[in-house]
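Consider what follows.

. . .
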Amino acid sequence: MMNRRKFLQFAAAGVALSAVDKTLLAGIPEPVMMGNADTQPLLMPNTGRPYQPVATLNGWSLPWRMNKNVKEFHLVAEPVKREIAPGMVANLWGYNGQSPGPTIEVVEGDQVRIFVTNKLPEKTSVHWHGQRLPNGMDGVSGLTQAAIEPGKTYVYEFEARRAGTFMYHPHADEMLQMAMGMMGSWITHPKNMNMHKVDRDYVFLLNAYDIEPGSYLPKTNTMLNFNLWTFNSRAFPGTSPIVAKQGEKVRVRVGNLTMTNHPIHIHGHEFEVTGTDGGWVPKTARWPEVTTDIAVGQMRAIEFVADELGDWAFHCHKSHHTMNAMGHDFPNMLGVSQQGIAKAFSKLVPDYMPMGKTGMSEMSDMAEMMDMPLPENTLPMMAGKGQFGPVEMGGMFTTLKVRKDMAKNDYTDPGHYAFPKGTVAYALDNSEGLPIEHQAAPTAGEKPITEFNVRKPHKMSHD
């Protein structure tokens, strides 16, 4: 049994125990719920086989109880509220209080039993994406099992046969339920803790929503034109950073349950793709990259040594996927002066937010200077502030923060990076605004150069 102390530890971290009808669910482990959208502390195993736990970005791992030699979990499929970022909440469907649901962590060879209770208004099922298991446990409603009707609890039992990175999601009314946020990560750790060992291990899912400004409910029939691209149902600046101590080996596992591919890109480091949902990539088949494309339904594990200090961007390289919910279909207004118009229009049309005369940055500048209100329950298209000003990002964007003094199990945000003197790009102090060219270094016997050459502008005739 999971002891009382373990449950109280999770309650202190923002977890609450769900009220359960003891007569209906006699013998079933009590479901543990989570409402906090921050990255939660690691779930250290105190029963069963040992393993090195993962950190779920803006998420958590689901506690279990041991019943003889079986590891038992309880998932509750239910409507949830998810803060996409400060200032916006979405009415989604998920598991145990959140979307995505909690990460399930087991060890290769574990006997696993998952109770799934349906508190949705329609039937559902759970497919264990990528797992080797008996056909009747695969979770495809109508094909391998009867669907789980509202109010019913079904039980899935199988052995975690293969170590790796997996997902879970419905296979009943899949388009609607996944568009509403029903998904979660599954990690099967190797029996040998020294295999594929890293210092920090992260996991998150790529998901997307179409929620109009002022609305709280996703449009579930959208195929491609989503306006919220998220890491674990969080959009920048709501995403937690990936943190590491300088010199640590870091693994980031990413699963894609959106409707398009995502080239995931890291700054300041290079990585290798070391795993997929099909297994671990042999060392002889790996190569260095700074971007890896993750297609729909795929998972990728990347690994790198966090040896460069700083706050490094980590994001999808599709530019529309690092923008938020204001939409992408307004006209290009480059070169068109709108001085004074935007504020007046916003009084008449609350959703009005034009592209600026000089580019998109002008939008955030206007909004800040004129305190232009946003529509209810939405996010600015480009958001986030750094120590030098607006970051002008959104969506699938976070940061890798590498520090010299991070404690081993410390996953808190260390704040802004303290740049060493002389290591920050700076504005040229040149009254003529012209680029400066350095002369070649002096050869032996020559006097050292004490001046710069300034390139004069070339005069062009206009016949």
Remarks:
- The longest strand covers residues 70-85.
- The helical segments are 4-12, 174-179, 341-348, 361-370.
- DSSP finds four helices and 28 strands in the chain.
- Residues 327-377 form one domain.
